[in-house]
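Q: Protein A?
A:
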Amino acid sequence: MANMTRTCSNDPTTREAFRVRMEHQCLQIERYRLAVLRDEGRHLSEDEAGLEWIGRHAEAFARGTAAS
């Protein structure tokens, strides 16, 4: 794993793709947080929303099929 990280960090294209993907995931988590507030009336912190979203959607997101 360390070798993969070192390789990825040296490739600007790979770093940019990773950054964009993480930004997209953060947006999905924020949308989830707001949807939970709207639909369920639950106030989640960013961390709580992130943990819930990851538990429910991370696998689909990794496959490119996650819904907001």
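Q: Protein B?
A:
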Amino acid sequence: MQEVTNKEVGTDNSPSEEPAAPASKQKQPANRKKLGLIALAVIIVVGAAIAILVATRHKSAAPTARTFHIGLLAPSGDTLSTGIAMKQGMEVAQAKYKSDNFKIDVVQKDTNCDADSAKKAMQELADRHDIVAVIGEACSGATLAAAPIANKYQIPLVSPASTSPDLTTAGDYVFRTIPSDALTGKFTANLLYNTRHIKRLAIVYSNEDYGIGLSAAVKQNFEALGGTVVAYETYEDGSTDVAKQTQAMKAANPDAIYMAPSAFTSPVAILQQMKALSFSVPVYGSEVLGDQNFIKDAADLAEGITVVTVSQGNADFAAQHRAMFQEDPELYGAQSNDAYIAIFKAVQAGATTGPAIKDKIAHESFAGASGQITFDKNGDVPANYVVYQVQDGKLRAPSS
């Protein structure tokens, strides 16, 4: 029987050469590598697109500048040009002092230099719950009426025009960018007695907070220097029935008259009475006699009046004011500018609430449009005064 081996029939289990694989299977690793590179490139492109989209969305969703609301208590321009001067002065500061991180929105209330109106307006601002500070009021009586509300609701109240000595003790939340009449009285008395050599002085004043405080300060300091107050007359604020007071002053034979009015209607009437009585002596007065409405109404009778008051602003402020409003700034415009700056600086330093803004303002010191602004422990600032004179229907500094 013939022997048959495993080798011959192909059943041998020993290693043998594998048959060649099809061509398509031989190229598979290369194709996979190519597909992998393509996939990686797609992932990179898609990833970059997603990153750009996320960045774009993040940028568009960036938080906007925070808005802080402050109030402005100011009299109407129909009553005093002070209200217009305050608003314009503040707007000059708004145009100059800006931040990318926040903006300040101003809510104005017309208070007409009236205590009841100011009290009501301050309460309305407090009831909003978003007012962090207030600029105002102009008249001392109005600011004193608003002060208790400012203290109760912890809202800093910065007056650019109220000068009553009573504001010095009106509370921790009350500030002003204008000196107290206590300082005005000392400066004025020195001017009258030592510079102008006036020895006999008649004083006439309105019977409200401003007139009472200022006239008392002038009288006290003038007498302390050695002068004599020969007449000390008062009248109802805003009254034109001033014949009795004018006659009393003439009879006292003064070297000069000093007026401390609140509304300008009364001093106009006094000047008219002086003319009727042929009573002619130099007239000095507070900043109300520098109000353009007073100068306009008094006309020729206002010529030559000397006004002792605060600065109408430095050269830079005056230039900015003329560029924005095509007119020179009036009294209290520079002080209102500085009140806004004080609030702005507090917010810029990180204060976001009334108490925090109050604390920041209390420690501020900066060169303002009206002079150096450095608040003392009572919220008062140093004395910065200028002696003006009415010339050709305008209030002019001595050098002009």
